[in-house]
Amino acid sequence: MIKAGIIGSTGYAGQELVRLLMQHKDAEIVWYGSRSYIDQKYYDVFHNMFEIVDADCMDDNMEELAEKADVIFTATPQGLCSSLVSEEVLSKTKIIDLSADFRIKDADRYEEWYGIKHPSRDFIKEAVYGLCEINREDVKKARLIANPGCYPTCSILSIYPMAKEGLIDMDTIIIDAKSGTSGAGRGAKVNNLYCEVNENIKAYGVASHRHTPEIEDQLGYASEQQVVLNFTPHLVPMNRGILVSAYASLKEDVTYEKVKSIYDSYYKKEKFVRVLPENVCPETRWVEGSNYVDLNFKIDQRTGRIIMMGAMDNLVKGAAGQAVQNMNLMFGLPETEGLELVPMFP
Amino acid sequence: MIKAGIIGSTGYAGQELVRLLMQHKDAEIVWYGSRSYIDQKYYDVFHNMFEIVDADCMDDNMEELAEKADVIFTATPQGLCSSLVSEEVLSKTKIIDLSADFRIKDADRYEEWYGIKHPSRDFIKEAVYGLCEINREDVKKARLIANPGCYPTCSILSIYPMAKEGLIDMDTIIIDAKSGTSGAGRGAKVNNLYCEVNENIKAYGVASHRHTPEIEDQLGYASEQQVVLNFTPHLVPMNRGILVSAYASLKEDVTYEKVKSIYDSYYKKEKFVRVLPENVCPETRWVEGSNYVDLNFKIDQRTGRIIMMGAMDNLVKGAAGQAVQNMNLMFGLPETEGLELVPMFP
Amino acid sequence: MIKAGIIGSTGYAGQELVRLLMQHKDAEIVWYGSRSYIDQKYYDVFHNMFEIVDADCMDDNMEELAEKADVIFTATPQGLCSSLVSEEVLSKTKIIDLSADFRIKDADRYEEWYGIKHPSRDFIKEAVYGLCEINREDVKKARLIANPGCYPTCSILSIYPMAKEGLIDMDTIIIDAKSGTSGAGRGAKVNNLYCEVNENIKAYGVASHRHTPEIEDQLGYASEQQVVLNFTPHLVPMNRGILVSAYASLKEDVTYEKVKSIYDSYYKKEKFVRVLPENVCPETRWVEGSNYVDLNFKIDQRTGRIIMMGAMDNLVKGAAGQAVQNMNLMFGLPETEGLELVPMFP
Amino acid sequence: MIKAGIIGSTGYAGQELVRLLMQHKDAEIVWYGSRSYIDQKYYDVFHNMFEIVDADCMDDNMEELAEKADVIFTATPQGLCSSLVSEEVLSKTKIIDLSADFRIKDADRYEEWYGIKHPSRDFIKEAVYGLCEINREDVKKARLIANPGCYPTCSILSIYPMAKEGLIDMDTIIIDAKSGTSGAGRGAKVNNLYCEVNENIKAYGVASHRHTPEIEDQLGYASEQQVVLNFTPHLVPMNRGILVSAYASLKEDVTYEKVKSIYDSYYKKEKFVRVLPENVCPETRWVEGSNYVDLNFKIDQRTGRIIMMGAMDNLVKGAAGQAVQNMNLMFGLPETEGLELVPMFP
Q: Are residues D293 and D161 located together in one domain of the fold?
């Protein structure tokens, strides 16, 4: 039985981790970290957990936790995990960091986009970018996982086969993404109040969102060239779900069949990636509560572009589910364990 | 492995049955009945099932199905199950009927409230009202289960202990209930369009809703007297969930502690009923996707009334989950099998 | 041109006042009071007002405002208006208070339910309860208006004719009310975040909500007896709207026609009260953005009860619209001026 | 007083026309056309109109209507207006067609994209594309107006200044648009049910949506070259609102100030177009219920692209409001009459 600790267990991603781990037969939670709710019953914060979780919320003590836990999930704001990690900690336990601290290999670039100083640059190199479908072998051997961002997970998986195969002009990529509101976190901000989000859609972080360099880096590795792209996220009045519509110019004339066979070859064996039948667009409702990413594409002969589309649950494949998937790989368990959740509709 | 057939598998309750049975380790679905989508892939109707269910939708053939299935779920409009059931069918298989056909023991009363003729009155007596928490032993031995209605399940469980203990005046019961829109079904009606339901709340079926006699009957059995009550359902702009606020006059002065101990004595051992801590009101968000019913009550000394409250997921405990719970009991499985789903939030 | 000042102009009710007054041909706003946003452009807080309102937000200075304004609207938390009102202020200007400070004639009762000390008990007697349909003549002569609460407005208008005519047993009244989330205000609280409210319904303030004594008092005046009742509010995932379902036992057998004629006699001349055709239930979608209250009732012969129903927009008739209606009466303008807004659907 | 007839008055756009015209002081509605609800009270279909509209729904008789009405609005599916228009009709009345029949000047192109035969090609030339901000002078003289589509209105106004000034590469335009569900119409379709739309976002009509040629044509006129672009609409779980995020490569280095001054020069005098302050993104909540289009842009130095953004209410500026704006121009009224509605929030 894997002993897991969660630092930041009372955010939306942290709570989703609790939901998933409670249904995982080879893991148990030994630490419900939460600075905001120390000594309160976890079920007082999330009543869905009443009679399921009896533990109290505890302070975020990485040292103590390293003694108790086989794996620590940090579902915390940027800068926290990187300030707590150390060789001593990593010698005792594994860390899966759901924040951005170890996702960008170039520390200067991280500091520029995130506006904070990186406190543990030495560990950046060691950290493995935990997008299992792409880095599976490295994940298995990792001590420190940089769990991918929600938008990057969906964006990268949507575009990856075309980038890797060199079929699109990497200078023409535009990613227009839409997210449910749980992605904005559980902080008490006027802008996230029900009446402010409901009956509204807006773009935010235009040309400046922090997930941009993460996507650029990974697509850069795939295409073996430097990538600069446009990424525009939008806030949608729904709880969960991310939808990506990505555009790029095709470098050559390709048929639907050709591209379909490429996507199939990349993802056919992937349990959590579903390449949909022709003309079926991904929709967030079909993946809710599950670890699936649904993908499809459309070739527009008129403009010579391909539209690559992806849908997933931002809290599962975009955060907690992917973290569990990484945990499974790191501990030699079946990759799908605890994640074979059928999407819930409606 | 229990072989299960579903007649009416493409409604919301039918599809929820599929979701639950796909995650049930001792059952498999052998028949996806759907008049509307015959010969289409089930996943073409519900894309969440892509790569999970590969079967086609089939016609609703009870005869043929009785040969193949150990249990048949009928998630169909009133009148269908009762027109198909027969001694021959029941000699070969068990039936769990999610419609109202066998819920009312008095056939005249059924016909009066439902406005249709009951085609198989003989089976009404045999049918067991499948509210497991109350009729567990009878359910275990049943061939034919009348799976309770969504509103009745939540209403009855909320009021039952007070009725059974004789602590409330049964002539004073008023049930004000609120339901998510999946309860209205998947039929293409203008009134259920997104723009008609969103940003709206309304009462419907005031003083005439068909779930009224079902609630009255069961509370009548509990209190051993005839019960006439007010039941008012409301439609709420959300997908899932039922909330019940029930009012009744107390027959004597009782303390919070007294009533709490009664509710606990009825439900402490019940896995799917959670009596919440004092002053925590049930909310539908805390049970979504799960088979839980959350209950609580408040005594109003000023008016001498008790307010009894319940929340549950109408598609799970109010339909498909309860059906699976009944199946588990009928086949000697652990009652919770396939139903230990942690509520999903947000 | 009436010069109007608003203290608390950046809450939802305050902003709705701005919307209505901008479309009122005989009033202009001279003061946008807002402690939270002093010196910021009003349109920076509410971008809908861009190019419509150019003013800055100002401090809440009642003294200064009394010099400038013919009428002051206080859309503020309890206790503020009552701490600022004085004979000097009222000698210079009129006040329409949207808080509860002057709604309860018995100051002890106010203090008990609201948990704060009333700082200006002397003015309670003078204040007129501004439910225009009932107190029209007094409103016309008032200097100080207690603008009714949202739930009370809808509840009282729904029940008033039956109470006044003595047709219901006043000891049996149960009001089950449902409100959109704008009623919870614009404060940054976790409980009002989008993901906490969406896909949820809950009761709150059960047997203890502060609008209870206000409803009891007004129905007490109507029935000329002391009234104690149950009032249960619920939070609904929608922006605007209040729906009331009220129950009471009939004191005698009455026909639909009899009750209809009573409601018609009370409300036929009322521009903002619509008694709907038989069997059409009030729904919040049909009044959104307007000053209408839609009413109807259903007699349940089985239980001897009447169900009285009302729907309105909590921010209009339940707050800002009613305040403007009061202003119109106080200044001798046509009562409907600036309020003839057709409900917006969908 | 202008006498107006509406053919198709019981769709969402038709009903919005009724709402606007009821608040227009120089127009009255003389005909509520609706094939689906002939002889029913209009308020039976839309209860918001109870005690506001007393008329019955009538058949769609263009001949008879031409005798009675000064202007006919056709808020009908494609093909209807074009099959009813004639020289005789136009000699008696003016027509504002909210369908696509006369928007595309090249009839072959219309038939190709819409898949139907155009029954009155002769009138295409005469029809004026009623985007008032661009074709104001022609609108004033027109007998037949092609009221622009919802997506095209928002897309064209967002991009127009850059296209007209030749600052963007017209071969690089990608329009990613998002719409509320009222845009999908009031037809009873499973896909538009509450539970299918709620908690979901999806793209549809990818690389094939019918509004594509309309946008291309108008931007082609502006830039004086043939334009081929990508247009991807998405369905958002909200009632009203369209948001456009449009991308294009800049042809030269331009500063924020330069582009801002261009947008201002095009739109400063336009009452219904608001160019927002720097860094304020358009959001649909700020225009709801009004005729405004909110615009802004962001220059991305990294990619050399400009992101042009627009938000409006699809039923007002995107349909009924623009139709009234056209009517005002055609009849020599102030362009803003009946349209000075302050956006309603929340």
A: yes
